[in-house]
Design a protein that fits this description.
mainly alpha; globular
Length: 173
């Protein structure tokens, strides 16, 4: 039986992010990127500087972002702070270049030390989705941002994130 991850409330996410940033810039970037983009842990492990379109303030996730899984190509809007954090991270490297299990270990280690909870990359993905839902982003836009195939009931054109883009650009957290 699969248990859905419980999203973190804003105060716990903030505490987790602060602890990650204190531990190292790499840990901080990992928690920030997962919590502010909704990337899967496996996508994050393959993240490269080529995905960042700083001019459009977008993270362009390619179809082959997860090895062996064909996903939808998607664009994730970033705030100005998000673009700066991604640019800063990529000044010293061109890709994340760690395994999915290392991403999971980083997040779990920080969460166990800080929150005494078992937080996973999927929890941060759920936290991102829940925050969008709480600030009024339509579910169809959230599904597209997370890379799910649009259903026939979605009325938002592919890669059109009217509400989500405005909310994220104004500062989601």
């Amino acid at each position: 039986m699969s248990k859905e991850p419980t999203p973190l409330p804003p105060s716990k996410y903030k505490k987790l992010l602060e602890a990650a940033e204190k531990r190292s810039s790499r840990h901080g970037f990992t928690v920030y990127a997962l919590g502010h983009t909704g990337l899967r842990g496996s996508e994050f492990s393959r993240l490269s500087c080529e995905w960042l379109d700083s001019e459009k303030q977008m993270l362009q996730v390619p179809a082959d972002a997860v090895k062996g899984i064909r996903s939808r190509v998607r664009s994730i809007p970033l705030s100005e702070d998000g673009v700066e954090r991604f640019k800063e991270f990529f000044t010293t490297r061109s890709e994340v270049a760690i395994t999915h299990s290392t991403v999971t270990k980083q997040v779990k280690s920080i969460s166990e030390d800080t929150l005494s909870e078992n937080v996973s990359p999927q929890t941060l993905r759920s936290t991102f989705a829940m925050r969008l839902l709480q600030i009024g982003v339509p579910q169809s836009e959230i599904r597209q941002l997370l890379g799910y195939t649009p259903s026939k009931w979605d009325i938002v054109p592919a890669d059109s994130y009217g509400v989500a883009e405005k909310k994220i650009r104004s500062g989601l957290y």
